[in-house]
Amino acid sequence: LxxxxxxxxxxxxxxxxxxxxxxxxQGEELAKYSLVMPRPVRICRALSEGGISVADSMDIQEIxxxxxxxxxxxxxxxxxxxxxxxxxxxxxxxxxxxxKGRIFCKNLSHVYNPKSPFATQALNGVDLxxxxxxxxxxxxHTGSGKSTFVQHLNALIKVPTAEKKYKEKKRxxxxxxxxxxxxxxxxxxxxxTDFRELRSKVGMVFQYPExxxxxxxxxxxxxxxxxxxxxxxSSDALKxxxxxxxxxxxxxxxxxxxxxPFELSGGQKRRVAIAGVIVTKPEIxxxxxxxxxxxxLGKEEIMTLLHKIHxxxxxxxxxxxxxxxxxxxxxTRAAVFSEGRVWKVAAPKQLFSDVAALNEIGLDAxxxxxxxxxxxxxxxxxxxxxxxxxxxxxxxxxxxxxxxCTSSEGGHEHA
Length: 415
Hints:
Number of helices: 17
Shape: globular
Largest sheet: 6 strands, mixed
Strand content: 15-25%
Strand order of the largest sheet: 8-9-10-5-11-12
Oligomer: single chain
Helix content: 25-40%
Distance between the termini: 36 Å
């Protein structure tokens, strides 16, 4: 949104160039190079197709102004502001009383390099509950504690009481509160917990997971984790599990099983890395920036894959992301981390309703949320959940309610 000119490169050559709104409005051309139209242009196009004639633009204020000019605003629209407030933007299919797939955390703190001049308080009394069945998002600026938190979920970082050397002591007056950390029914504060079994149930996919590929063949790489957790697994069972994992992530087993993972494309490497985690069929899957570094189509494909896994067998999926639109479009709820604490937990609609508050802690908001604010300042209040599809649907519904029908030439008439 800040550029005056955009250039699209493909195989070392410039294939498109011009003003951003000109380049990004060429949907069919962009698709040839695994690119998609940005959300601002998609909103403009969808509104125009629905009857509110809005010129393609990348500028929030310009789009809001164009929408304002294209519709008739009455006092009745202003009254829509409180309608539907407080409802979840995405239906919540989660189960609050089921242990499998549930995470319960209370009073979790963590200090890196304790008792040294380099001591850093990464977590400071985190309280958070994630229910079984959720597609949950975790947000936060760099250094907010979100990555440290998720590394606790499969005991990559252990609570002190779970360390083998820990000896229980009597709590003194004024000591830190007792920590509770239950994940998928496992007590992660107890050193007698079977952490090996836990890690087969809680899969962790790190940022740029393709950098962790190491085996000579795709088959060996995907099979490694399963053989580690189940050393007695039969060769047929192993083959079937690897086949299923690869096919789940959209790769042809016969084509890639014997290939070197290092000879695959970036998107294929990402899929192989994810297959190596889901091959154990974890009940909780945690992904740190799962779409980082991928082209726009690749990002959409990864999110579609995660929703398929979630629908088919994985009880709970947690994604750590800096992309507010990604959270708004995909998550049932999300938690915002700031300075080692949970700042807020809510459905995206409530979480992103206060754009100014998010900006104060160094976070952005989804494009539809910022456009909603810009429209409100111009007298148009549209109640939506800040996804592109819902914003367009509610905006068109609002226009129809007011009896506005726009023409393809950009004018408008009143029914």
